[in-house]
Each structure stands twice: as C-alpha cells, then as structure tokens.
Design goal:
It is a single chain. This protein is mainly alpha-helical. The protein folds into two domains: 35 residues; 113 residues, Cytochrome c-like domain (Cytochrome Bc1 Complex, Chain D, domain 2). It has a two-stranded antiparallel sheet with strand order 1-2. The longest helix has 31 residues. The chain is elongated, with a radius of gyration of 26 Å. Bound molecules: heme C (HEC). Heme C binds next to helix 3 and helix 4.
C-alpha cells in the first residue's frame, strides 16, 4: 500500500518536473526574441527608417526616381494630399469603393498612381513603394489603428 502511494507520488513529481522544464524552455525561447538593443543600434534603426521617410517625402512631392513614372498629369501626390495627412493609412486594409475591392494601403497607392495620376503602377515590394509607405505612416504617426474603417 505504502509503495503504491510512493509510486504515485514519484509519478506526480516527475510530471511536475517535466511541465516546469517545458515552461522554462518556452519562456527562454520567447525571451530570446526580446534582445534589448544598445542606444547606438537603436539610432541606426531610426536612421534607416528616416532615410526611407525622406525618400518617400521627396517622391510624394514629385521628385523623380529612375525607372519610376508615378504621374503623367504633372500632379504629385502632395498636390491632392497635403502633408499626406488625409490618406488614412491606419484604416487599411479596408473595402475601397473606388476599386470595388478589399484593398491594402499599397493597392490604394497604386490606384492613385494609375487613376488620378495616369501614371504607371509601381512594384508593390519595390523601393519606391516602401519609401512612400514609410513617409505616409510617419506623417500619420499617433493615429489609432482602425482597420476596415470607412
Ligand atoms: C489628382 C488628385 C490626386 C492625386 C495627385 C493623388 N491622389 Fe490619392 N486620392 C485621390 C482621390 C480622389 C482619392 C479617393 C478619395 C478617398 O478615398 O478619400 C485618393 C485616395 C488616396 C488614398 C486613400 C485614402 C483613404 O482615406 O483611404 C491614398 C493612400 C492615396 N490617395 C495616396 C496617394 C499617393 C501615394 C499619391 C501619389 C502617388 C496620390 N494619392 C495622388 C486623389 C489624388
């Protein structure tokens, strides 16, 4: 009787040990993704971001870029969207009436290039698109995420 109880206790202790080990393993792995960066590294990340914002700002205001033709009307984005403050990036993705489809911010940027601007759509993963996206988000920082809004 005594030995059955001991065996049961041993089994329980082993099980608890296994669960604890698994927990420690999972927590450690999760923590590995949260490496804190020193000030210098963080500054390098910010610089890389701001470089994109500045490039996007220039494109948004009509600066030329090799291989890109975002407008055939002479209109730059900023002429219809001053300071990019009314382009609502925090509402994407959402159903976009003009396109009659569910759209990402990149889809909408290309819609504006193709329709009002009569230009040529840009590569959704290309340098110009990433820079435009960086500028548009930066200009609207502080906005509360509200995807799907109309
Ligand atoms: C001739 C005027 C005009 C120009 C130039 C123009 N757009 Fe637009 N843009 C519009 C109109 C019209 C809409 C649709 C109205 C709306 O949804 O608010 C729009 C909507 C948008 C939206 C979505 C706004 C929202 O509230 O969902 C984005 C993003 C956008 N434009 C980006 C751009 C970018 C980037 C450029 C330059 C490549 C550009 N636009 C150039 C007229 C213009």
């Amino acid at each position: 009787m005594q030995s059955i109880r001991n065996k049961g206790l041993m089994a329980l202790i082993s099980a608890l040990l296994c669960v604890s080990l698994a927990f420690v393993f999972v927590v450690n792995r999760a923590a590995a993704h949260k490496v804190s960066h020193d000030a210098e590294t963080l500054q390098a990340f910010t610089d890389a971001f701001m470089e994109q914002v500045i490039l996007g700002d220039n494109l948004f205001h009509g600066a030329p870029m090799d291989g890109i033709n975002m407008s055939n009307t002479g209109m730059a984005c900023a002429m219809c969207h001053p300071f990019s403050s009314d382009v609502h990036p925090h509402e994407y993705p959402k159903f976009q009436e003009q396109m009659s489809e569910f759209a990402t911010l990149r889809d909408m940027i290309n819609w504006c290039i193709e329709k009002p601007n009569e230009g040529e759509k840009i590569d959704p993963d290309g340098e110009a698109m990433k820079a435009l996206e960086a500028y548009i988000y930066w200009s609207n920082r502080g906005s509360v995420l509200d995807p799907g809004r109309h």
